[in-house]
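Bench notes, afternoon.
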Amino acid sequence: MREINKIVMDNVLKYKNFIATVKYSEEDAAFIGKIEGIQSVVSFEGQSVEELKSAFMEAAESYLDFCHRKGITDMQKSYTGVFNVRIDANLHRRAAIMAKNQGTTLNAFVKKAIERNLEYV
């Protein structure tokens, strides 16, 4: 039987316009969360799912209050629109060929694929 040394649970929480990633820390016996996509680093924790959800809402509200007090109106992290994607070489080749067959660039092909996958989000 294979021994599992560390259990990691990934999950996502949503509250208002905030999204947080969650991991379970076996060492701390707690769920640790971090609000993603904002200008600051905001983390929270809880020993149960209910504690975690409550801590997330409290952290988000505290961040909103902080931004309001400081006059910060653009709370979201800014993105340049440029990023590198690392994929298997065969997948890269197949995408490049498909883009060429469609008469478009690889960049436009990937952009369209991302848009199509985010259509219902």
